[in-house]
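User: Please predict the structure of the protein below. I'd like the answer in structure-token form so I can feed it into my own downstream comparison script.

Assistant: Understood. Taking the following sequence of 203 residues as input:
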Amino acid sequence: MSDECIEYDPEKSKQFLADAGWKDLDGDGILEKNGKKFEINLLTSPISEYSKSAVVIQDQLKKVGIKVDIEILEFGAVSAKVQSGDFDMHLAAIGNLAGGDLLTKLTDPKTMGMINRAFYENPEVAELLLKATASINIKEYKEYLKKAQNIVLEDLPYVPLITAMNSMMANLRVGGLDNLYGEYPHCRLLHGHVIALEAYLKK
């Protein structure tokens, strides 16, 4: 919904790091500043998709001079570290929410350490999302959400990697599903009520 996007540009990343004073002084490929190496921790769970993604992230950041140590722990240990804020980066997935509902949970101060794993807080974003939730006009809703998303992309507490494609199958006798991804693509909540489709069996 946002007009903005994060481009993959290693050379620009290197320039940003150099401008911030990070340099490879000893030629080992790892940047340093004020006598400290640029080494960060990437926390995740022992799920195949997570561990594979972690290795890709590790490799990409190594190319710009950042050393990433991957820490794979069982879910309970990961949750404890996330809730205490004891991590540099955390790789995980989130589901069952979409649109403004998802963004609200990811940026809500009340969910810090839980869904809001970045401990992010921005009053302007909160106000825009509140207006979006209160709106019953889909065009207005999208505009509020778009503004909020652009602010979050500028602050960048999260780096979205992938959106899973969900599929739904139904018997040909089931009707009412033609506009499933139409005006209300996320089946979102309006004033606490779920906007649902009126499915029916064809005669």
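That's the full token string. Residues 23 and 177 are 56 Å apart (CA to CA).
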